[in-house]
Amino acid sequence: KYGMSSKVSVIMPVYNSEEYLGQAIESILNQTFRDFELLIINDGSTDNSMEIINQYCKKDNRIKVYSNESNKGLPYTRERALNLAHGEYIALMDADDISYKERLEIQVRYLDDFNDVF
User: pLDDT band at 2, cuts 50/70/90?
Assistant: First the structure.
């Protein structure tokens, strides 16, 4: 992997998740650990998910947005995100979930301290 990379790549597949999507994105952007990229893959949503994603994308340059040409499903979308990720670590995030503010900080500290676990 070349160029500037973040410590963590947070990957978030999105399919018709408008109800919870804003809260999910904010829970990542508000992390105490700041060295991450947020890769959002829109998997052919037909609701307002893409409009919500675009609003956040304008506010934070750590967000990188990609779209599948049609709904490809979670396995395809996660694999695509993994191939686009540049971080040392990968964090999975669902579009209808909320992360605790210290989630990435705790996970990175653990993986840095116990790097024999992987």
Answer: very low
How far is residue 47 from each of residues 19, 28, 53, 85, measured CA to CA in Å? Answer: 10, 22, 12, 26
pLDDT confidence band for 1 (50 / 70 / 90): very low
Global pTM reads 0.93
Close Cβ partners of 16 (under 8 Å, ≥ 6 residues apart): 45, 46, 47, 49
Q: Smallest Cα–Cα separation from 63: which of 102, 11, 104?
A: 11
Q: Are 13 and 82 in contact (CB under 8 A)?
A: no
Q: What confidence score (pLDDT) does residue 37 get?
A: 98
Residue indicated by tokens 């990435």: 104
- Is 8:86 a contact under the CB 8 Å cutoff? no
